Amino acid sequence: MNRLAFELKLDEEEVRPADYFDMMAGVGFGGLCALLLGRLRMTPRLVADELEKVATAIFNTGDDEIASAEYAMVKLRMVIEDILRRHGHPCNIDLRDDSNNRCKVVVFAALEVVADHCRPFRTYVHPRSSKGVRHTFVDVACAILAFPEFLPPVLIGRPGREERFSGIPHGFHNPMQEVLKESQWLFDKERPVSLVLSLGPGQGPIISSKDYRGTTSSRIVSKTDTVAKELSQRFCGVGEYLRLNVDKGLDNVELDDWHALGSIVSHTEVYLELPTITAHIDRAVQWLLRRNGSVTLEQLVCSNNHSQIKFLQQNHNEQLLKVVKQMNEIVQEAIEKITLVDAVGIRIPISLQLCRSYETLIKVIRVYYEDQRPPGTRLVKKGHFELVSGNEGEVVKPIAWRCVVTPGLTVEMSMIRHDYHTEGMNCPRCGHAYTDWTTKGWTTWGASR
């Protein structure tokens, strides 16, 4: 957002992602970021500060693991409530946003009994969800952060029908597939997509072997890399899709390494300063400012075959290149030509390749007159004409032609009549008789101006 603020000539704190993105989503801490950015409309800098407070509450455990896990959940709730209070919201605020906020947010949590099921929690009304069921912001925030390794599950639902949620669904560390499906319920399928931005965790797969009680678990927590590769293949050639993920230095960072934020910041800044990444970010900013992409939502969501999107994008690129080529040809034709104005004022474009030498140009002029038969053809056939150029109408000498001819040059023809003793000598164009000649030479009708 710093880059966007720079382009808009605004202070960084004046630019809020919720004003530029129509939809945000995530799981775990990514889900909490989406809620803070989209639902509460915070700036990225504020979100970073609040995340540090939340992480400290979760991972600052004591010696008694069971007691500390339960207590960590209590502290987590207190921290979330404190965030709401400090930013002017009631502690029992609903997750659902009934205001005119353009940014819709959906976050996903895992059911304890079905860990590989992705349960969505939305800030908006969805056709498939019950309109009467409303969840609090605090409950949902705790549910998406209830990592089994550190926290107990969170109960959400009506009394007697509560469901237990425990953090990130198995296999959904990158929920982009679900987000794309969700978007088709919200927006028109023909709507152009400006930017699809995916932010990775900056680390490889993690296998969890124990839950917060120390019980052995075979649950694989992350398939981020696999999903990211599938999406990269699917959206190959689609400029509106951007994946950012710090690929070096964070492999050994664990969830509870919040005391080492300095190294995380350093590796992230190095990654963002890479020329390729900087170029991608610059392009993304331009897409956001335009708010008009070349791919529709239907093409992104409804195509299970990435080759179709690639073909559509390739076809778009081919059409664009074709137009650019035609424009270049037009420009080159205008630049790489001279203009000949004949004796009656007709402008004749001639390729520079056909008039590099004076002799070749004369041949071209003769062929033109023989083919088109304009006024003055008889004089041209006899060679009774001259070429003039410049504001003063200076005669162009054959020996000097190679020094004169340049792209864009305009030369004019002047017809020469040697029969100046003949009465009634007429203009080749209008036929007007010209009698005011001198006996020292010949009479010349210049090209019509």
TrEMBL record:
One Gene Ontology biological process: lipid catabolic process
Domain of life per record: Eukaryota
Cellular component annotations (GO), alphabetically ordered: membrane
Keyword Transmembrane attached: no
Record keywords: Hydrolase, Lipid degradation, Lipid metabolism
Record bears the keyword Hydrolase: yes
Name under which the protein is recorded: Ubiquitin-like domain-containing protein
